[in-house]
């Protein structure tokens, strides 16, 4: 039986196809190991060597190596020699020693080599091998002791035995199958101009990166059940221009503006100010395929209403304007409830730089012990920043599909209410969701929305023209200083050069930019990297001619 490679035929070195020894060089170069073998007087003759094949073993090549071994049962001995940079040596050894176990990997079923953190497909298992290879582990190729060990190993190697095992055709390496992609699930930040654009990106992030988790749900009877949802934690969305979205775009995603508009909206649609534009509410347009219980009607009015219907456990308007009371000491009669929006507006009007315009909708004395009928919108923070009134809202739990957009438009109404009374212009809104999720039943619908994202750049809805997404960190201009043969990168913002980077190579500049967190948009970073590489090649060519 002669050695036949099913995988990586062009990456492995065949010495004697009839041999029974394989050499795994891990991360060390095959040529370097061959020199050590030659120096140890190991027979490398294609006709008589005991060595059949010499190849690297990087971590990602383990599934292919196992399949090659399964197809070539005549390989009885494997010598491991070389630099073990990624742990591939332990993975190979423990595969045969410990076997594999079923685990969850990126939301799908996978397998792990027991005793390691290495995931692997489960199509090839140790029990499929008629005889597990005999392993001999040596040190680095450059270690003098390795040369001596190789001499000893091949001197004492027992005679070759005829292989009577049949070849086993292994199943192909399966295509990767995951239900989510890796990310830090607590660090997603989205910055977009308008609410709908931000919502689409939010759904995209949840579909691509969200975890399938069980979350507790409390019914009217008080009994708790668990349902499966696609979840991320502590997602922050910054909406820089929180005004009503284009009606056609809203309809495209099953949202329709409310028909009950102000008279000014009807008579002067083109002259609406940003404040007036925010008075538009919208509702979810129901279809036969996608029914939803969400009701967007009059939401912007209701979120400012202090009254709570007796059959509802809480309303945001009530928590903001009719739920909490001042301290009762010294009052003969019960005082009126606190209108927290009026209080923060008054404070900001008299003390514009105050950081005390903070409201909690969460009543710890009631909400924490009862654990049901608790508000999801829990804090509101208003702050004048860069001359406008910014608004940060925190939600402890958030339904991304059916509540987030409705909540954002409600937040726009709250911000407008406070801004008008404080005498300020509304600015960006930031929404922080401690737990934001999609119901599994809505996943197909969410995937369709996520698939609508074709680029991270900005697409003009009217013309279809694509523009690079603006990086708030600034822009960069690259030139070459031929007197020093250095790349020069000027960091610019609003037409001014604010910093300069210099280096002999693109890699040197890239390290400086990364250190300074100089870029914040991925597409911008990729573009700048390409330009730096191009400029470096151009500089080297010009220098060679000089």
Give the full name of the CATH homologous superfamily of the largest domain.
Answer: Thymidylate synthase/dCMP hydroxymethylase domain
Number of strands: 23
The proportion of strand residues reads 15-25%
Indicate the overall shape: elongated
* DSSP helical segment count: 16
Helix content: 25-40%
The third-level CATH topology of the largest domain is Thymidylate Synthase, Chain A
Compute the average pLDDT: 87
The major β-sheet equals: 8 strands, mixed
Radius of gyration: 33 Å
CATH architecture of the largest domain: 2-Layer Sandwich
The stretches of 5 or more residues where confidence is low (pLDDT under 50) are: 259-297
How many domains? The number is 3
Alpha-beta classification:
alpha/beta
What is the highest CATH level, the class of the largest domain?
Alpha Beta
The end-to-end distance, rounded to whole angstroms, is 60 Å
Characterise the protein shown here.
The chain is α/β, with parallel strands linked by helices. It has 3 domains: 13-155, Rossmann fold, CATH 3.40.50; 189-328 and 335-453, Thymidylate Synthase, Chain A (2-Layer Sandwich), CATH 3.30.572.10; 475-545. 30% of the residues lie in helices and 24% in strands. It has helices at residues 30-39, 62-71, 88-98, 144-155, 195-209, 247-252, 263-267, 274-277, 299-302, 316-321, 340-350, 364-370, 404-422, 443-451, 506-515, 522-545; strands at residues 13-14, 21-24, 51-55, 77-80, 100-105, 108-113, 119-120, 134-137, 189-192, 211-218, 224-239, 255-257, 282-284, 358-360, 377-385, 388-395, 398-399, 426-439, 458-459, 466-467, 475-481, 486-493, 496-503. Strands 9, 10, 11, 14, 15, 16, 17 and 18 form an 8-stranded mixed sheet that branches. Helix 5 (195-209) packs across helix 14 and helix 15 runs antiparallel to helix 16. The longest helix is centred in the C-terminal third of the chain and has 24 residues, at 522-545.
């Amino acid at each position: 039986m002669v050695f036949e490679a099913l995988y990586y035929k062009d990456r492995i070195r065949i010495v004697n196809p009839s041999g029974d020894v394989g050499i795994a060089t891990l991360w060390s170069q095959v040529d370097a190991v061959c020199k050590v073998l030659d120096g140890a007087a190991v027979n490398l003759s294609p006709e008589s060597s005991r060595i059949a094949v010499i190849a690297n073993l990087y971590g990602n090549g383990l599934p292919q190596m196992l399949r090659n071994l399964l197809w070539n049962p005549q390989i009885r001995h494997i010598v491991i020699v070389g630099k073990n940079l990624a742990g591939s040596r332990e993975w190979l050894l423990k595969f045969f020693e410990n076997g594999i176990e079923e685990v969850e990997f990126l939301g799908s079923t996978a397998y792990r080599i027991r005793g390691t953190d290495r995931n692997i497909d489960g199509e090839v298992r140790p029990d499929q091998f008629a005889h597990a290879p005999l392993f001999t582990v040596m040190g680095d190729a450059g270690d003098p002791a390795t040369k001596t060990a190789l001499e000893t190993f091949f001197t004492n190697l027992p005679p070759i035995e005829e292989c009577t095992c049949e070849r086993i055709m292994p199943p192909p390496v399966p295509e990767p199958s995951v239900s989510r992609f890796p990310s830090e699930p607590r660090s997603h930040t989205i910055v977009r101009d308008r609410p709908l654009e931000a919502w689409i990106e939010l759904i995209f992030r949840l579909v691509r990166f969200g975890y399938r988790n069980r979350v507790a749900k409390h019914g009217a009877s008080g009994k708790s059940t668990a349902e499966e949802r696609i979840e991320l934690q502590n997602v922050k969305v910054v909406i820089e221009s929180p005004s009503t979205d284009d009606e056609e775009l809203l309809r495209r995603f099953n949202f329709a503006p409310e028909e009950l508009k102000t008279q000014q909206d009807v008579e002067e649609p083109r002259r609406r100010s940003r404040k007036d534009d925010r008075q538009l509410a919208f509702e979810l347009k129901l279809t036969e395929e996608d029914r939803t219980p969400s009701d967007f009607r009059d939401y912007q009015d209701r979120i400012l209403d202090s009254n709570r219907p007796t059959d509802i456990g809480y309303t945001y308007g009530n928590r903001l304007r009719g739920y909490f009371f001042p301290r009762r000491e010294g009052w003969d009669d019960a005082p009126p409830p606190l209108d927290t929006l009026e209080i923060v507006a008054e404070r900001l009007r008299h003390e514009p730089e105050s950081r005390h315009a903070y409201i909690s909708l969460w009543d710890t004395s009631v909400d924490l012990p009862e654990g049901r009928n608790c508000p999801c919108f829990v804090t509101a923070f208003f702050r004048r920043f860069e001359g406008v009134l910014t608004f940060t809202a925190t939600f402890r739990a958030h339904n991304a599909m059916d509540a987030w957009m409705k909540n954002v438009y409600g937040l726009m109404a709250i911000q407008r209410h406070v801004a008008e009374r404080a005498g300020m212009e509304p600015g960006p809104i930031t929404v922080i969701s401690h737990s934001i999720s999609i119901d599994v039943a809505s996943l197909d619908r969410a995937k369709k929305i996520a698939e609508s994202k074709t680029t991270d750049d900005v697409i003009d809805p009217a013309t279809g023209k694509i523009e690079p997404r603006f990086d708030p960190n600034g822009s960069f201009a690259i030139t070459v200083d031929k007197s020093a043969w250095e790349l020069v990168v000027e960091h610019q913002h609003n037409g001014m050069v604010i910093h300069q980077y210099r280096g002999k190579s693109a890699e040197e500049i890239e390290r400086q930019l990364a250190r300074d967190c100089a870029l914040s948009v991925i597409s911008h970073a990729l573009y700048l990297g390409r330009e730096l590489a191009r400029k470096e090649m151009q500089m080297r060519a010009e220098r060679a001619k000089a």
